[in-house]
Specification:
The chain is an alpha/beta fold. It folds into 2 domains: 4-77, CRISPR-associated endonuclease Cas1, N-terminal domain (Ribosomal Protein L15, Chain: K, domain 2), CATH 3.100.10.20; 86-297, CRISPR-associated endonuclease Cas1, C-terminal domain (Four Helix Bundle (Hemerythrin (Met), subunit A), Up-down Bundle). It contains 10 helices and 11 strands. The strands form 3 sheets. Strands 1-5-7-8 form a 4-stranded mixed β-sheet, covered by helices on one side. A hairpin with a 2-residue loop joins β2 and β3. α3 (98-122) packs antiparallel against α4 and α6 packs across α10. It is globular and about 60 Å long. The two termini are 23 Å apart.
């Protein structure tokens, strides 16, 4: 399984040499086997890329992220042809019932709030706040009709950031860090959704008309607290420095528990998406595999 995440900045050219990514910077070049690469993050707007390389990256289902001037992912490259059984997978997805989707969303939000409470415990937040989160856990209904997700988020973020903080306030550099980390994991999920032959724009709960990856926006929810924990424990001192961005990208190598085993986030994403098929075929909540952060271990700084 591919595992390397290649971060590119201040290079002259990216090209293909045999089955390797060739990175050229002045008189120095480095070659990385394509089979080892999970993701390629390109932040250099002046970097030259060959068409031949882009075709091979697509064939190898490598996640390619092109970032804008603020270093946030702006473009994700996906292959035109997907899973070998794509039509079959798409037809299964179109058959998912509303009741199954609502129950799935309940399970996703339950795990998200559980993971948020775990982050609060790790960060020694007051017990009464954690107890409020546990009370909310007991109130989640199919489809989360009463918006427990939003109620939990208010308690959760107010436990860590100063008064007046909101997720939409870009004056807080923490939000820039959170958005960058979320974008990396969201892109990794979107890449895997496409690789599994699913319709990325057809979500379980998210229905954004302009969101081509509604399903990834559903699946990311229990993964978000991984980013939260890193930003809380290592708050940014400035706006998205290169070193800090690399740490956020490396959260894909963080370890979590899923299906009773310790796995990297990259592997956990694949296990989670594979389990969707089992869940919808069996109708059993136990078939769904979601990440648990109780034994989470971040990639070494």
């Amino acid at each position: 399984m591919s595992w390397r995440i290649v971060h590119v900045g201040n290079v002259d050219q990216l090209s293909l040499q045999l089955d390797n990514l060739k990175v050229v910077q002045k008189d120095v070049d480095v070659k990385i086997p394509l089979r080892d690469i999970f993701a390629l993050v390109i932040e250099d707007l002046a970097c030259k890329l060959t068409s031949r390389l882009m075709v091979e990256l697509s064939k190898n289902n490598i996640l390619v992220l092109l970032c804008n001037q603020k270093y946030l992912p702006e473009c994700v490259i996906h292959p035109v042809s997907g899973h070998f059984g794509q039509h079959r997978q798409m037809m299964k997805q179109l058959g998912w019932t509303d009741s199954q989707k609502k129950e799935l969303w309940k399970l996703i939000i339950h795990q998200k709030v559980t993971n948020q409470a775990n982050v609060m415990q790790r960060c020694s937040v007051d017990d009464y706040r954690i107890e409020k989160m546990n009370e909310l856990l007991r109130s989640i209904s199919p489809g989360d009709r009463t918006n427990i997700e939003g109620q939990a988020a208010k308690i959760y973020f107010n436990s860590f950031f100063e008064e007046g903080y909101t997720r939409s306030n870009l004056n807080f550099i923490e939000n820039a860090a959170l958005n960058y980390g979320y974008a990396i994991i969201h892109s990794a999920i979107a890449r895997t959704v496409v690789a599994k032959g699913l319709i990325p724009g057809l979500g379980v709960h998210h229905r954004g008309d302009r969101n081509p990856h509604n399903l990834a926006s559903d699946i990311i929810e229990p993964f978000r607290p991984i980013v939260d924990y890193f930003v809380i424990k290592h708050p940014p001192e400035a706006y998205l420095t290169k070193e800090y961005r690399i740490h956020l990208i490396n959260l894909l190598h963080a370890k979590v528990v899923i299906d009773n085993k310790v796995q990297t986030v990259i592997r956990a994403i694949e296990i989670c998406i594979n389990s969707l098929f089992d869940y919808f075929e069996t109708g059993k909540s136990t078939s769904l595999k979601l990440p648990d952060l109780e034994k989470m271990k971040l990639h070494e700084l």
